[in-house]
Amino acid sequence: MSARLDWICHAGAALRGSVRVPGDKSISHRALMLAALAHGSSRVSGFLEGEDTRATARILQQLGVRITAPSAGERVIDGVGLHGLRASAQPLDCGNAGTGMRLLAGLLAGQDFDSVLIGDASLSQRPMRRVIEPLAALGARIDSSDGRPPLRIHGGALLRARALRTAIASAQVKSAILLAGLYADGVTRVDEAQPTRDYTERMLQAFGWPIEFGPGWAALPGRQSLQASDVQVPGDFSSAAFFIVAATLVPGSELLLRDVGLNPRRTGLIEVLRAMGADIRIEAPHQRGGEPTADLRVRHADLRGIEVPREQVADMIDEFPILFVAAACATGVTRVHGAAELRVKESDRIAVMASGLRALGIDVQENPDGALIQGGSLRGGAVESHGDHRCAMSFAVAALRASAPVRIADCANVATSFPGFEALARGVGFDLHVATQAQMA
Ligand code: S3P
Protein backbone atom coordinates (compact mmCIF):
# COMPACT_ATOMS: atom_id res chain seq x y z
CA MET A 1 0.00 0.00 0.00
CA SER A 2 1.39 3.43 -0.99
CA ALA A 3 1.94 6.23 1.52
CA ARG A 4 -0.77 8.84 1.80
CA LEU A 5 -0.59 11.59 -0.79
CA ASP A 6 -2.61 14.80 -1.07
CA TRP A 7 -2.52 17.47 -3.76
CA ILE A 8 -3.02 21.19 -3.85
CA CYS A 9 -4.02 22.64 -7.21
CA HIS A 10 -4.43 26.20 -8.41
CA ALA A 11 -6.02 27.54 -11.57
CA GLY A 12 -3.40 28.82 -13.99
CA ALA A 13 -2.75 29.90 -17.54
CA ALA A 14 -3.81 28.20 -20.77
CA LEU A 15 -2.64 24.59 -21.25
CA ARG A 16 -0.24 24.06 -24.15
CA GLY A 17 1.92 21.30 -25.52
CA SER A 18 1.76 17.64 -26.32
CA VAL A 19 1.29 14.65 -24.05
CA ARG A 20 1.83 10.93 -24.49
CA VAL A 21 -0.24 9.15 -21.88
CA PRO A 22 0.82 5.74 -20.49
CA GLY A 23 -0.27 2.45 -22.05
CA ASP A 24 -3.79 1.09 -21.90
CA LYS A 25 -4.57 -0.65 -18.61
CA SER A 26 -7.10 -3.13 -19.99
CA ILE A 27 -4.78 -4.24 -22.79
CA SER A 28 -1.74 -4.44 -20.50
CA HIS A 29 -3.52 -6.83 -18.08
CA ARG A 30 -4.73 -9.05 -20.91
CA ALA A 31 -1.37 -9.10 -22.71
CA LEU A 32 0.33 -10.46 -19.58
CA MET A 33 -2.31 -13.12 -19.02
CA LEU A 34 -2.51 -14.44 -22.56
CA ALA A 35 1.26 -14.32 -23.07
CA ALA A 36 1.65 -16.33 -19.84
CA LEU A 37 -0.62 -19.08 -21.20
CA ALA A 38 0.95 -19.11 -24.67
CA HIS A 39 3.71 -21.26 -26.11
CA GLY A 40 6.84 -19.20 -26.65
CA SER A 41 8.09 -15.81 -25.65
CA SER A 42 6.00 -12.64 -26.13
CA ARG A 43 7.18 -9.06 -25.94
CA VAL A 44 4.79 -6.36 -24.73
CA SER A 45 5.75 -2.77 -25.49
CA GLY A 46 3.93 0.31 -24.27
CA PHE A 47 3.06 -1.72 -21.13
CA LEU A 48 1.39 0.33 -18.40
CA GLU A 49 3.82 0.63 -15.47
CA GLY A 50 0.90 1.09 -13.08
CA GLU A 51 0.34 -0.62 -9.76
CA ASP A 52 -2.67 -2.53 -11.11
CA THR A 53 -0.86 -4.10 -14.04
CA ARG A 54 2.32 -4.72 -12.03
CA ALA A 55 0.19 -6.62 -9.52
CA THR A 56 -0.99 -8.89 -12.34
CA ALA A 57 2.62 -9.42 -13.47
CA ARG A 58 3.66 -10.32 -9.90
CA ILE A 59 0.81 -12.81 -9.60
CA LEU A 60 1.76 -14.54 -12.84
CA GLN A 61 5.35 -14.74 -11.58
CA GLN A 62 4.05 -16.33 -8.37
CA LEU A 63 2.31 -18.88 -10.59
CA GLY A 64 5.62 -19.80 -12.18
CA VAL A 65 5.78 -17.54 -15.25
CA ARG A 66 9.09 -15.87 -16.08
CA ILE A 67 8.53 -12.18 -16.82
CA THR A 68 11.40 -9.77 -17.39
CA ALA A 69 11.44 -6.00 -17.91
CA PRO A 70 14.20 -5.11 -20.40
CA SER A 71 13.20 -1.44 -20.06
CA ALA A 72 10.39 0.67 -18.62
CA GLY A 73 7.18 -0.03 -20.51
CA GLU A 74 8.46 -3.34 -21.83
CA ARG A 75 7.91 -6.90 -20.65
CA VAL A 76 9.07 -10.21 -22.04
CA ILE A 77 6.89 -13.11 -20.95
CA ASP A 78 8.00 -16.71 -21.35
CA GLY A 79 4.69 -18.51 -21.78
CA VAL A 80 4.13 -21.79 -19.98
CA GLY A 81 1.20 -23.04 -22.07
CA LEU A 82 -2.40 -23.53 -21.00
CA HIS A 83 -1.49 -26.12 -18.35
CA GLY A 84 1.91 -24.85 -17.25
CA LEU A 85 0.94 -22.62 -14.30
CA ARG A 86 1.96 -23.81 -10.81
CA ALA A 87 0.19 -23.32 -7.48
CA SER A 88 1.29 -20.47 -5.25
CA ALA A 89 1.57 -21.11 -1.52
CA GLN A 90 0.84 -17.43 -0.91
CA PRO A 91 -2.40 -15.54 -1.69
CA LEU A 92 -2.39 -13.64 -4.98
CA ASP A 93 -2.67 -9.92 -4.28
CA CYS A 94 -4.49 -7.94 -7.00
CA GLY A 95 -4.08 -4.65 -5.12
CA ASN A 96 -6.69 -2.14 -6.28
CA ALA A 97 -7.41 -3.90 -9.59
CA GLY A 98 -10.92 -5.16 -10.26
CA THR A 99 -9.85 -6.13 -13.77
CA GLY A 100 -6.96 -8.18 -12.45
CA MET A 101 -9.09 -10.03 -9.93
CA ARG A 102 -12.09 -10.74 -12.15
CA LEU A 103 -10.07 -11.89 -15.17
CA LEU A 104 -7.76 -14.00 -13.04
CA ALA A 105 -10.79 -15.62 -11.38
CA GLY A 106 -11.79 -16.92 -14.81
CA LEU A 107 -8.29 -18.00 -15.71
CA LEU A 108 -7.67 -19.76 -12.38
CA ALA A 109 -11.03 -21.54 -12.41
CA GLY A 110 -9.61 -23.89 -15.05
CA GLN A 111 -6.41 -24.88 -13.20
CA ASP A 112 -5.86 -28.12 -11.35
CA PHE A 113 -4.64 -26.29 -8.19
CA ASP A 114 -6.29 -24.03 -5.60
CA SER A 115 -5.71 -20.27 -5.51
CA VAL A 116 -6.70 -17.39 -3.27
CA LEU A 117 -7.19 -13.90 -4.73
CA ILE A 118 -7.03 -10.93 -2.35
CA GLY A 119 -7.09 -7.16 -2.81
CA ASP A 120 -6.73 -3.82 -1.02
CA ALA A 121 -9.45 -2.21 1.12
CA SER A 122 -11.35 -0.86 -1.91
CA LEU A 123 -11.19 -4.07 -3.95
CA SER A 124 -12.18 -6.09 -0.86
CA GLN A 125 -15.52 -4.26 -0.89
CA ARG A 126 -16.28 -4.80 -4.57
CA PRO A 127 -18.93 -7.24 -5.83
CA MET A 128 -17.62 -10.56 -7.14
CA ARG A 129 -20.87 -12.53 -7.55
CA ARG A 130 -20.99 -11.15 -11.06
CA VAL A 131 -18.06 -13.46 -11.92
CA ILE A 132 -18.60 -16.20 -9.32
CA GLU A 133 -22.08 -17.05 -10.60
CA PRO A 134 -21.35 -17.40 -14.33
CA LEU A 135 -18.10 -19.24 -13.58
CA ALA A 136 -20.06 -21.61 -11.29
CA ALA A 137 -22.46 -22.18 -14.19
CA LEU A 138 -19.43 -23.48 -16.13
CA GLY A 139 -18.58 -25.80 -13.23
CA ALA A 140 -16.06 -23.67 -11.30
CA ARG A 141 -15.99 -23.76 -7.51
CA ILE A 142 -15.26 -20.38 -5.94
CA ASP A 143 -15.83 -19.35 -2.31
CA SER A 144 -16.03 -15.71 -1.31
CA SER A 145 -16.73 -13.63 1.73
CA ASP A 146 -20.43 -12.98 1.10
CA GLY A 147 -19.82 -12.18 -2.57
CA ARG A 148 -16.65 -10.15 -1.94
CA PRO A 149 -12.93 -10.94 -1.90
CA PRO A 150 -11.00 -12.92 -0.89
CA LEU A 151 -11.88 -15.43 -3.60
CA ARG A 152 -10.93 -19.04 -2.91
CA ILE A 153 -10.80 -20.84 -6.22
CA HIS A 154 -10.83 -24.62 -6.03
CA GLY A 155 -8.68 -26.34 -8.61
CA GLY A 156 -9.50 -29.50 -10.48
CA ALA A 157 -13.03 -28.49 -11.47
CA LEU A 158 -14.20 -29.95 -14.73
CA LEU A 159 -15.43 -26.98 -16.76
CA ARG A 160 -18.33 -27.54 -19.16
CA ALA A 161 -18.89 -25.07 -21.97
CA ARG A 162 -22.22 -23.21 -22.04
CA ALA A 163 -23.91 -20.21 -23.58
CA LEU A 164 -24.34 -17.48 -20.96
CA ARG A 165 -26.06 -14.11 -21.00
CA THR A 166 -24.59 -11.36 -18.79
CA ALA A 167 -27.01 -9.37 -16.66
CA ILE A 168 -24.80 -6.27 -16.45
CA ALA A 169 -22.70 -4.71 -19.18
CA SER A 170 -19.18 -5.67 -18.06
CA ALA A 171 -16.12 -6.51 -20.12
CA GLN A 172 -14.59 -7.92 -16.96
CA VAL A 173 -17.40 -10.45 -16.55
CA LYS A 174 -17.36 -11.36 -20.23
CA SER A 175 -13.59 -11.80 -20.14
CA ALA A 176 -13.67 -13.98 -17.02
CA ILE A 177 -16.13 -16.30 -18.76
CA LEU A 178 -14.03 -16.44 -21.93
CA LEU A 179 -10.83 -17.16 -20.01
CA ALA A 180 -12.53 -20.01 -18.15
CA GLY A 181 -13.90 -21.14 -21.50
CA LEU A 182 -10.35 -21.78 -22.68
CA TYR A 183 -10.37 -24.78 -20.33
CA ALA A 184 -13.93 -26.02 -20.99
CA ASP A 185 -14.99 -28.78 -23.31
CA GLY A 186 -17.07 -27.45 -26.22
CA VAL A 187 -18.04 -23.91 -27.21
CA THR A 188 -18.47 -21.21 -24.56
CA ARG A 189 -20.62 -18.32 -25.71
CA VAL A 190 -21.33 -14.98 -24.01
CA ASP A 191 -24.15 -12.65 -24.99
CA GLU A 192 -23.89 -9.29 -23.31
CA ALA A 193 -26.46 -6.98 -21.76
CA GLN A 194 -24.79 -4.23 -23.87
CA PRO A 195 -21.64 -4.37 -26.02
CA THR A 196 -18.46 -3.76 -23.99
CA ARG A 197 -14.77 -3.45 -24.82
CA ASP A 198 -13.56 -6.44 -26.83
CA TYR A 199 -9.86 -6.54 -26.03
CA THR A 200 -9.93 -10.10 -24.72
CA GLU A 201 -11.54 -11.30 -27.93
CA ARG A 202 -9.14 -9.38 -30.19
CA MET A 203 -6.13 -10.53 -28.27
CA LEU A 204 -7.19 -14.18 -28.16
CA GLN A 205 -7.46 -13.97 -31.93
CA ALA A 206 -4.00 -12.38 -32.19
CA PHE A 207 -2.59 -15.24 -30.07
CA GLY A 208 -4.10 -17.74 -32.51
CA TRP A 209 -7.18 -18.97 -30.60
CA PRO A 210 -10.15 -19.69 -32.90
CA ILE A 211 -12.70 -17.20 -31.55
CA GLU A 212 -15.72 -15.59 -33.18
CA PHE A 213 -17.14 -12.33 -31.92
CA GLY A 214 -19.09 -9.22 -32.75
CA PRO A 215 -20.59 -6.30 -30.82
CA GLY A 216 -22.28 -7.81 -27.75
CA TRP A 217 -21.30 -11.47 -28.23
CA ALA A 218 -18.34 -13.83 -28.37
CA ALA A 219 -17.94 -17.61 -28.76
CA LEU A 220 -14.87 -19.82 -28.48
CA PRO A 221 -14.08 -23.51 -28.35
CA GLY A 222 -12.10 -24.73 -25.35
CA ARG A 223 -8.86 -26.74 -25.19
CA GLN A 224 -7.01 -25.17 -28.09
CA SER A 225 -3.62 -23.45 -27.72
CA LEU A 226 -2.18 -19.94 -27.69
CA GLN A 227 0.92 -19.00 -29.65
CA ALA A 228 3.23 -16.24 -28.42
CA SER A 229 2.64 -12.87 -30.01
CA ASP A 230 4.17 -9.41 -29.56
CA VAL A 231 1.75 -6.77 -28.32
CA GLN A 232 2.05 -3.03 -28.84
CA VAL A 233 -0.12 -1.23 -26.33
CA PRO A 234 -1.64 2.11 -27.40
CA GLY A 235 -2.09 5.02 -24.96
CA ASP A 236 -4.99 4.63 -22.55
CA PHE A 237 -8.01 6.66 -23.67
CA SER A 238 -9.20 6.87 -20.07
CA SER A 239 -5.94 8.60 -19.09
CA ALA A 240 -6.12 10.92 -22.10
CA ALA A 241 -9.64 11.88 -21.01
CA PHE A 242 -8.35 14.10 -18.18
CA PHE A 243 -6.32 16.16 -20.65
CA ILE A 244 -9.15 16.25 -23.19
CA VAL A 245 -11.44 17.85 -20.63
CA ALA A 246 -8.70 20.06 -19.17
CA ALA A 247 -7.88 21.60 -22.58
CA THR A 248 -11.57 22.02 -23.29
CA LEU A 249 -12.22 23.87 -20.04
CA VAL A 250 -9.32 26.33 -19.86
CA PRO A 251 -9.61 29.33 -22.22
CA GLY A 252 -6.77 29.63 -24.73
CA SER A 253 -5.71 25.99 -24.39
CA GLU A 254 -4.57 23.64 -27.12
CA LEU A 255 -3.19 20.17 -26.38
CA LEU A 256 -2.03 17.38 -28.67
CA LEU A 257 -2.48 13.91 -27.16
CA ARG A 258 -0.32 11.42 -29.01
CA ASP A 259 -0.98 7.77 -29.79
CA VAL A 260 -4.28 7.37 -27.97
CA GLY A 261 -6.18 4.09 -28.40
CA LEU A 262 -9.58 4.78 -29.96
CA ASN A 263 -11.35 1.44 -29.71
CA PRO A 264 -14.99 2.38 -30.43
CA ARG A 265 -16.10 0.70 -27.18
CA ARG A 266 -13.99 3.22 -25.24
CA THR A 267 -14.59 6.57 -26.90
CA GLY A 268 -18.13 7.48 -25.82
CA LEU A 269 -16.70 10.56 -24.07
CA ILE A 270 -15.63 12.06 -27.43
CA GLU A 271 -19.20 11.81 -28.74
CA VAL A 272 -20.70 13.24 -25.58
CA LEU A 273 -18.21 16.13 -25.29
CA ARG A 274 -18.71 16.98 -28.95
CA ALA A 275 -22.46 17.06 -28.38
CA MET A 276 -21.71 19.52 -25.53
CA GLY A 277 -19.70 21.72 -27.93
CA ALA A 278 -16.11 20.46 -27.52
CA ASP A 279 -13.47 20.91 -30.23
CA ILE A 280 -11.71 17.53 -30.49
CA ARG A 281 -9.95 16.59 -33.73
CA ILE A 282 -8.62 13.19 -34.65
CA GLU A 283 -5.28 13.39 -36.47
CA ALA A 284 -2.85 10.85 -37.93
CA PRO A 285 -5.07 7.80 -37.45
CA HIS A 286 -3.11 4.54 -37.50
CA GLN A 287 -3.20 1.02 -36.06
CA ARG A 288 -1.18 0.08 -33.02
CA GLY A 289 -1.25 -3.53 -31.92
CA GLY A 290 -4.37 -4.06 -34.02
CA GLU A 291 -6.18 -1.19 -32.28
CA PRO A 292 -7.36 2.04 -33.93
CA THR A 293 -5.04 4.72 -32.56
CA ALA A 294 -4.62 8.43 -33.32
CA ASP A 295 -3.45 11.79 -32.05
CA LEU A 296 -6.14 13.99 -30.56
CA ARG A 297 -5.95 17.77 -30.89
CA VAL A 298 -8.15 19.50 -28.33
CA ARG A 299 -8.84 23.24 -28.17
CA HIS A 300 -10.78 25.22 -25.60
CA ALA A 301 -14.52 25.42 -26.19
CA ASP A 302 -17.53 26.52 -24.19
CA LEU A 303 -19.72 23.58 -23.20
CA ARG A 304 -23.47 23.27 -22.75
CA GLY A 305 -25.19 20.63 -20.66
CA ILE A 306 -26.89 17.64 -22.29
CA GLU A 307 -28.72 14.46 -21.41
CA VAL A 308 -26.09 11.71 -21.79
CA PRO A 309 -27.56 9.06 -24.11
CA ARG A 310 -27.96 5.78 -22.24
CA GLU A 311 -26.47 3.85 -25.14
CA GLN A 312 -23.17 5.74 -24.64
CA VAL A 313 -22.82 4.77 -20.99
CA ALA A 314 -20.92 1.48 -21.42
CA ASP A 315 -18.58 3.13 -23.96
CA MET A 316 -17.50 5.75 -21.43
CA ILE A 317 -17.94 3.89 -18.14
CA ASP A 318 -14.56 5.01 -16.76
CA GLU A 319 -15.00 8.61 -17.91
CA PHE A 320 -17.92 9.71 -15.71
CA PRO A 321 -15.81 11.33 -12.99
CA ILE A 322 -14.23 13.64 -15.57
CA LEU A 323 -17.53 14.12 -17.40
CA PHE A 324 -19.02 15.36 -14.11
CA VAL A 325 -16.31 18.04 -14.07
CA ALA A 326 -17.04 19.03 -17.68
CA ALA A 327 -20.75 19.22 -16.77
CA ALA A 328 -19.96 21.39 -13.73
CA CYS A 329 -18.31 23.91 -16.07
CA ALA A 330 -20.99 23.78 -18.78
CA THR A 331 -23.90 26.12 -19.23
CA GLY A 332 -27.14 24.47 -18.14
CA VAL A 333 -27.94 21.03 -16.84
CA THR A 334 -26.32 17.66 -17.62
CA ARG A 335 -28.31 14.53 -16.84
CA VAL A 336 -26.79 11.07 -16.41
CA HIS A 337 -28.93 7.94 -16.14
CA GLY A 338 -28.30 4.23 -16.63
CA ALA A 339 -24.89 4.37 -14.92
CA ALA A 340 -25.53 2.48 -11.65
CA GLU A 341 -22.26 0.60 -12.22
CA LEU A 342 -20.47 3.78 -11.11
CA ARG A 343 -21.53 2.98 -7.56
CA VAL A 344 -19.38 -0.18 -7.48
CA LYS A 345 -16.17 1.04 -9.10
CA GLU A 346 -12.99 1.80 -7.10
CA SER A 347 -15.32 4.05 -5.07
CA ASP A 348 -18.98 5.00 -5.34
CA ARG A 349 -18.14 7.47 -8.09
CA ILE A 350 -21.53 9.13 -8.14
CA ALA A 351 -21.36 9.91 -4.43
CA VAL A 352 -17.67 10.89 -4.43
CA MET A 353 -17.96 13.25 -7.40
CA ALA A 354 -21.26 14.72 -6.20
CA SER A 355 -19.93 15.52 -2.75
CA GLY A 356 -16.62 16.88 -4.09
CA LEU A 357 -18.28 19.13 -6.64
CA ARG A 358 -20.80 20.33 -4.04
CA ALA A 359 -17.88 21.28 -1.80
CA LEU A 360 -16.65 23.42 -4.72
CA GLY A 361 -20.00 25.18 -5.06
CA ILE A 362 -21.75 23.13 -7.75
CA ASP A 363 -25.36 21.97 -7.45
CA VAL A 364 -25.40 18.18 -8.01
CA GLN A 365 -28.40 15.95 -7.36
CA GLU A 366 -27.67 12.25 -7.12
CA ASN A 367 -30.01 9.58 -8.34
CA PRO A 368 -29.51 5.82 -7.97
CA ASP A 369 -28.08 5.40 -11.47
CA GLY A 370 -26.62 8.80 -12.23
CA ALA A 371 -26.87 12.49 -11.39
CA LEU A 372 -28.16 15.85 -12.44
CA ILE A 373 -25.40 18.44 -12.58
CA GLN A 374 -26.17 22.15 -12.83
CA GLY A 375 -23.25 23.97 -14.43
CA GLY A 376 -21.91 26.89 -12.41
CA SER A 377 -18.82 28.60 -11.03
CA LEU A 378 -16.30 26.54 -9.11
CA ARG A 379 -14.85 27.94 -5.91
CA GLY A 380 -11.84 26.61 -4.03
CA GLY A 381 -11.99 24.21 -1.12
CA ALA A 382 -11.19 20.73 0.16
CA VAL A 383 -12.35 17.55 -1.56
CA GLU A 384 -11.89 13.86 -0.78
CA SER A 385 -11.07 11.41 -3.59
CA HIS A 386 -11.66 8.37 -1.33
CA GLY A 387 -8.57 6.72 -2.80
CA ASP A 388 -10.16 6.63 -6.25
CA HIS A 389 -7.54 7.42 -8.91
CA ARG A 390 -10.00 8.76 -11.48
CA CYS A 391 -11.81 10.97 -8.97
CA ALA A 392 -8.48 12.43 -7.78
CA MET A 393 -7.40 13.34 -11.34
CA SER A 394 -10.87 14.69 -12.13
CA PHE A 395 -10.73 17.06 -9.16
CA ALA A 396 -7.29 18.24 -10.31
CA VAL A 397 -8.92 19.21 -13.62
CA ALA A 398 -11.80 20.91 -11.80
CA ALA A 399 -9.23 23.04 -9.94
CA LEU A 400 -8.16 24.57 -13.27
CA ARG A 401 -11.45 26.48 -13.26
CA ALA A 402 -11.75 27.17 -9.54
CA SER A 403 -11.56 30.70 -8.12
CA ALA A 404 -9.27 29.59 -5.25
CA PRO A 405 -6.95 26.60 -4.53
CA VAL A 406 -8.43 23.12 -4.36
CA ARG A 407 -6.99 20.62 -1.87
CA ILE A 408 -7.51 17.01 -2.90
CA ALA A 409 -7.09 14.29 -0.29
CA ASP A 410 -6.00 10.70 -0.82
CA CYS A 411 -4.42 10.73 -4.29
CA ALA A 412 -1.78 7.97 -4.00
CA ASN A 413 -3.87 5.53 -6.01
CA VAL A 414 -3.37 7.64 -9.13
CA ALA A 415 -0.30 5.39 -9.50
CA THR A 416 -2.59 2.41 -10.11
CA SER A 417 -3.51 3.64 -13.60
CA PHE A 418 -1.53 6.78 -14.36
CA PRO A 419 2.01 6.83 -12.99
CA GLY A 420 3.60 10.18 -13.79
CA PHE A 421 0.31 12.09 -14.03
CA GLU A 422 1.57 14.94 -11.87
CA ALA A 423 4.68 15.57 -13.99
CA LEU A 424 2.81 15.31 -17.30
CA ALA A 425 0.10 17.64 -16.03
CA ARG A 426 2.62 20.21 -14.77
CA GLY A 427 4.44 19.96 -18.10
CA VAL A 428 1.42 21.36 -19.98
CA GLY A 429 0.56 24.01 -17.40
CA PHE A 430 -1.28 22.49 -14.43
CA ASP A 431 -0.34 24.13 -11.14
CA LEU A 432 -0.48 20.90 -9.12
CA HIS A 433 1.73 20.02 -6.16
CA VAL A 434 1.95 17.59 -3.32
CA ALA A 435 0.25 19.21 -0.34
CA THR A 436 1.89 19.41 3.06
CA GLN A 437 0.01 18.32 6.16
CA ALA A 438 -0.28 21.96 7.17
CA GLN A 439 -1.95 22.81 3.84
CA MET A 440 -4.46 20.00 4.31
CA ALA A 441 -5.28 20.87 7.93
C1 S3P B 1 -12.34 -3.02 -17.73
C2 S3P B 1 -13.70 -2.97 -17.81
C3 S3P B 1 -14.53 -1.98 -17.13
C4 S3P B 1 -13.72 -0.78 -16.64
C5 S3P B 1 -12.43 -1.17 -16.02
C6 S3P B 1 -11.58 -2.00 -16.98
C7 S3P B 1 -11.62 -4.09 -18.43
O1 S3P B 1 -15.16 -2.60 -16.03
O2 S3P B 1 -14.48 -0.02 -15.73
O3 S3P B 1 -11.69 -0.01 -15.64
O4 S3P B 1 -10.39 -4.00 -18.59
O5 S3P B 1 -12.27 -5.07 -18.82
P1 S3P B 1 -16.56 -3.36 -16.26
O6 S3P B 1 -16.38 -4.14 -17.48
O7 S3P B 1 -16.79 -4.22 -15.07
O8 S3P B 1 -17.56 -2.24 -16.40
Description:
By secondary structure, this protein is an alpha+beta fold. The chain folds into two domains: 7-21 and 234-440, Alpha-beta prism (UDP-n-acetylglucosamine1-carboxyvinyl-transferase, Chain); 25-232, Alpha-beta prism (UDP-n-acetylglucosamine1-carboxyvinyl-transferase, Chain), CATH 3.65.10. 30% of the residues lie in helices and 26% in strands. Strands 21-22-1-23 form a four-stranded mixed β-sheet. A four-stranded mixed β-sheet has the order 2-15-17-16. It has a four-stranded mixed β-sheet with strand order 4-5-3-14, with helices on one face. α9 (320-328) runs parallel beside α11. The protein is globular, with a radius of gyration of 21 Å. Bound molecules: shikimate-3-phosphate.
What's the gist of this structure?
With 441 residues, the chain is α+β, with helices and mostly antiparallel strands. It has helices at 25-37, 51-62, 98-109, 129-137, 171-181, 199-206, 237-249, 268-276, 320-328, 349-359, 389-399, 414-417, 421-427, 437-440, and strands at residues 7-10, 16-19, 39-45, 66-68, 74-80, 92-93, 115-118, 141-145, 148-154, 163-165, 187-191, 212-214, 217-221, 231-232, 254-261, 279-288, 291-299, 333-336, 363-367, 370-374, 381-384, 406-409, 431-434.
